[in-house]
Amino acid sequence: MRLSAVGAVLCYLNLALEVRDVVAVTKENPRVCIVGAGYSGLGAARYLKDYGIDNFKMFEATKHIGGTWRFDPHVGTDEDGMPLFTSMYKNLRLNTPKLTMEYVGYPFPEGSQSYPTGVCFHKYLKRFAKDFDLIKHIQFQSYITSIKWDKDHWNITYTKVDTKETRTEDCDFVVISNGEFSTPVWPKFEGLKLFKGKIIHSHDYKDPENYRNRRVLLVGAGPSGLDLAVHLSNVTTKLVHSHHLKYNQPFFSDTYVKKPDIRKFTSNGVYFQDNSFEQVDDVIFATGVLQKVFNCVKEAQGEYAAALIAGKFKLPSQEQMLKVWMTHVRDMKAKGSSILDVNDIPDGTGMYYYFGNLTAEAGIYRRPKVFADIREYTRQFRLENLLTFRDYDYKIIDEENFVKWYNPRPGNPCPFDE
Ligand SMILES: Cc1cc2nc3c(=O)[nH]c(=O)nc-3n(C[C@H](O)[C@H](O)[C@H](O)COP(=O)(O)OP(=O)(O)OC[C@H]3O[C@@H](n4cnc5c(N)ncnc54)[C@H](O)[C@@H]3O)c2cc1C
Ligand SMILES: *[C@@H]1O[C@H](CO)[C@@H](O)[C@H](O)[C@H]1NC(C)=O
Ligand SMILES: *[C@@H]1O[C@H](CO)[C@@H](O)[C@H](O)[C@H]1NC(C)=O
Ligand SMILES: *[C@@H]1O[C@H](CO)[C@@H](O)[C@H](O)[C@H]1NC(C)=O
Asked: Which pTM value belongs to this model?
């Protein structure tokens, strides 16, 4: 696989998708193909329209828009027998304030809570698609399998998941926005095969009710791991939580037990690094559903792509881009980072610089620094106040300042009906 100039625009590739070669040629009335109708794809589509490009089509594998924000009760494969992309679960609420998730110029109504439910955010996305008249551009149940350069256009090949028919279409540009969280990371542990209970990845976790009166081992303390600890601690008979995050652990319940990293599994339980042992019925791996890139950055990538396609700016020469890329790869190697992380956007300041460079290069809107500040502030605040951090509302008052106040909303009212 060679990385493409256009592919590099939105470039978290699903391994199932094959992309070959590289080019970005400016054309009159170009035809644009977008892979996926989640947050990123819908955002890119909106900017194409803003830049006067109407000749585009979004290819969406499922029957639905909204990607990972749609709750699907199926596990593993969906209603069409396709691998399930969404990782949404019952009772999920955003773990970053909606300010960091809203599209530019399209806020939630004034007064809505800062941490709405996932269901509510999905409604927001559906409304966005409707208001920007994007639905007519979406071709559903079309699963892209390969994208290949053919002299002067891209061949984009997909399977119609309803009829299983394979088709190829021409595109001048391709925007890849097929998501980044659908491939669960399975850790390896000694004895895991011996374990007789049920093992799932948090990608397949749906509902705490499935764990009522069970003894459960939960592994990991990323955003999903901590969230699941809250959701499960009151329904399980025992919740054994293995992780090594340093944070202000709240009182979950009497049945919650914190454990260090795992040493090995047995048929009915697990040994930890401190040699303690716990019997468990079920295991949930909340490992590797990592969540790094700020939605604002994804949105800006969409605008970057649209501005490029509209000819508002030009990419540097291929040679120059390759040089920068190789320097980046060498730096990563020198730091001992895995090549698998080569497309990662760094956290914190690194992301802020990335955002700055991206928007400066394309001459597009850059959100003021207060967005990055809120993001950093709330990341820390969450770890200190895991059970209550969503009870606060945030408001931006100017380019540098925001305010926060306590405002719990029982029942999590959503301002959208559908
Ligand atoms: C459980 C969970 C909670 C999260 N919570 C937050 C949060 O609170 N705050 C935050 O900032 N971020 C959060 N995120 C990150 C979230 O992924 C982003 O907010 C964002 O929605 C990602 O949108 P996307 O469009 O890039 O990807 P997705 O939402 O994954 O959409 C990708 C779309 O592409 C389609 N697709 C995939 N492959 C193909 C193909 N080959 N052909 C055609 N279509 C294809 C999929 O069906 C899907 O519709 C969370 C993620 C998860 C999983
Ligand atoms: C592109 O698709 C056309 C039509 O299906 C086909 O004839 C051609 O060989 C394809 N090109 C490549 C490079 O695969
Ligand atoms: C769990 O139960 C306790 C005791 O009933 C209650 O105080 C607490 O709020 C519950 N926690 C959650 C997250 O529901
Ligand atoms: C671009 O990134 C570099 C660091 O890689 C940073 O020093 C610079 O300030 C960034 N530019 C902008 C406009 O943010």
From this structure: 0.92
